[in-house]
Structures are given as C-alpha cells and as structure tokens.
Design goal:
It is a single chain. The chain has two domains: about 35-150 and about 290-320, Response regulator (Rossmann fold); about 155-290 and about 330-335, Response regulator (Rossmann fold), CATH 3.40.50. Helix content is about 35%, strand content about 20%. It has ten helices and twelve strands. The strands form two sheets. It has a six-stranded parallel beta sheet, with helices on both faces. Strands 7-6-8-9-10-12 form a six-stranded mixed beta sheet, sandwiched between helices. Helix 1 packs across helix 9, helix 4 (about 155-170) packs parallel to helix 5 and helix 6 crosses helix 7 (about 245-255). The chain is elongated and about 60 Å long.
Length: about 350
C-alpha cells in the first residue's frame, strides 16, 4: 500500500458525464451487478473542488487497473454535493433506491448527518473517504451498517499534529500571535479540527489566538478573510490552516500586507503540488500531506473487494499511503526529491 506516487496532472479535468451501465439487480453481492460488471457512484462533497476531483481521478485510475487485472467491467459516475449536506444526503438515499448502483464512494460533507441515509434501500455497500459516516467524526471503524470501509485518518489527530508544530515554532516567542484559518465553520469535520487546534494551543500561555476565520477551501475567500484579520494584527506570528488552497490565499494576503510569508509560521493541509513547492522553497513552514488520488484508488479497491466477496480492509489509514511523515518540512521533502504531490489545489 505504501508507495511514492507520480503527480496526477489535470486532476480537474473529469469525465463528468460518464453514465451508469445497465446492470441486473439480482447479480453480485451488495447491489446491482452480475459479478463481472459493476456501476459505482462517486458522491463528491463538491465536484468543483480540486480535492474531490483528485479522489475521483484515483477512482477512475483504479477502475482501469482492476478491469485489466480482473477482467471485469467498472463504470463510474460523479455527482455534485455542492458543499450542501442535504443535497448529498438525498443523493445517497437515491443511489440506494434506484437499483442502478452496485456501490457508492462518498466524500462526506456531513459525516454524522449522512448516517440518516442508512439502511440504504438496496443494501449496497458504501466506502467513505476523508472522514467517516456516523456520529463520531474521529472513529474510523465503520459506525453505520452498510459502510464497509473508511479511507481516512482521524481529523482531530491530524489537527493536533498541526497545532503541535505551532507550539514548537512559538516556544521562544511571547506573545506568539496565531490566526486560525478553517474551511467551513459549521462543518463537523472543521468543528473537530478547530477544537483540536484550540485544545493544544490553549495549553500554552505564550500563544494568543487572534482570530478564527473561514476560508471555505478557496484561495480568494481565504485571501479576503486573512486580509481582514491582518488589519488588526500586523504583528501576527503565524497562520494555521487546514487546506492548501486557503494557505495560498493567506500567503497572498501576507505579501500584500508587506509580510514575508517565510518570516512567520505558515502551514496548510492537502499536499498539493503548490504546497510541496512552497515548503521546499521555505515560504511555508510545513504542510500536512494528503493523498487524495491514492485514497480514491484505495476506496475503489475495497469496494470492489466487497462486491466480489473478498476480504475488505475496514480502515485504510490515509497517512500511511505514501512513505513520508504526515507533517512534512523542507528537510523531509529534500529526502524525497521525486515527490511533487498528487494534485493541484
């Protein structure tokens, strides 16, 4: 499972119109299929989001590989959740009742909320990517009957790991003024991350959180949010972000304010090609690497295993998919010169 992947260029160019194959509903295990033909629905939290696109790129890549290796047919279709929990819930319920899907891979917008879709009408298997489905956002083992595998790592653990690098950076700075740049302030995933950040940073009296702003996983929105934050905090010592797209916006905001990004703590999350380059150049302190293409591959592999009656890995730890430390510094990346990231943010 561990490997150093090549960059997947053009992750944003997707065959959004791939149609579901007509399959017999009395065939393979867990839903539509005849044992040799499977129709997979990929529910993106947003099909316009680069991360979701990269996960789907991995799904498509693995489908081609498995078709050749196993002599089966796999068709895929992506649906746009529009970053809306109710939209995605309806999509999952529909996938489970139409009889056309053999299985579902989902990047949940609201993992706890999606549990309401179960049991699915046709009892089709579901694999979750990035975060789990069920009440506990940090429990990777399937919590809901029908979810057969989760390809992720606990968000609170990752956020804690990020915050601990802030503590190390700030150890000789008092006060050390830190801004928090989260994705969506009402998302269960980001709520868990923010809590973990504050729990770690709050234990150190020299660290002052000067604001928590929303970047919406978007460079331009993050640019605006951080620009506003800097108006009252020109002496900021660092920005802790959970997404590379957001950190790119923060970097521009800092530069516009006359602050050299390399002179403060700056991090992101995602392992984009841009982030890897920024860390290598010393503009960012580190980056929490993520491997969405590899995660998409792993998700489809587990789903096809389930559909073919083979052994399924209930939890695939996303942090172990590539042989690099999760919080990668310039030194870490210099030790892996061929790694450029799996996606463009």
């Amino acid at each position: 499972m561990t490997h150093l992947p090549r960059i997947i260029a053009g992750a944003g160019v997707l065959a959004l119109g791939v149609s579901l194959a007509a399959c017999s509903s009395d065939g393979g295990p867990g839903g539509s299929g005849d044992g040799d033909s499977f129709s997979i629905v990929f529910l993106a939290s947003s099909s316009q989001n680069g991360y979701n696109q990269a996960v789907y790129e991995g799904v498509q890549k693995k489908a081609k590989e498995l078709q050749k290796e196993l002599g089966i047919t796999i068709t895929t279709k992506i649906q746009d959740g529009q970053f809306d929990a109710n939209t995605q819930l309806s999509q999952l319920q529909n996938a489970g009742t139409t009889g056309q899907a053999s299985g579902v891979i989902v990047v949940p917008q609201d993992g706890p909320g999606l549990a309401a879709a179960f049991p699915l009408g046709n009892d089709i298997p579901v694999v979750s990517v990035l975060n789990p489905i069920g009440p506990d956002i940090d429990k990777m083992e399937p919590q809901t009957e029908g979810v057969v595998s989760t390809v992720a790592s606990p968000p609170s653990a990752g956020a804690k790991r990020q915050a601990e690098t802030v503590v190390e950076y700030c150890k000789d700075i008092d006060p050390c003024k830190i801004g928090l740049l989260a994705g969506l302030l009402n998302s269960p995933l980001d709520v868990a991350r923010i809590k973990a950040w504050k729990d770690v940073l709050g234990a150190h009296k020299n660290i002052e959180i000067v604001g928590t702003v929303e970047g919406a996983y978007d460079r331009d929105k993050s640019l605006t949010a951080v620009s506003n934050l800097l108006q009252a905090n020109k002496d900021i010592n660092g920005i802790l972000s959970n997404a590379d797209q957001q950190t790119l916006g923060a970097q521009i905001a800092l530069e516009n304010a006359g602050i050299d990004p390399s002179s403060i703590f700056l991090t992101g999350g995602g392992g984009t090609t841009e982030a890897v380059k920024a860390v290598r150049e010393g503009k960012w302190t580190n980056d929490y690497l993520n491997y969405p293409v590899s995660m998409g591959e792993a998700a489809l592999e587990q789903l096809i295993n389930r559909l073919r009656g083979e052994k399924v890995q209930a939890v695939v730890d996303a942090d172990t998919l590539v042989d690099l430390p999760p919080m990668a510094t310039k030194d870490d990346l210099e030790a892996a010169p061929d790694f450029t990231g799996e996606w463009n943010g």
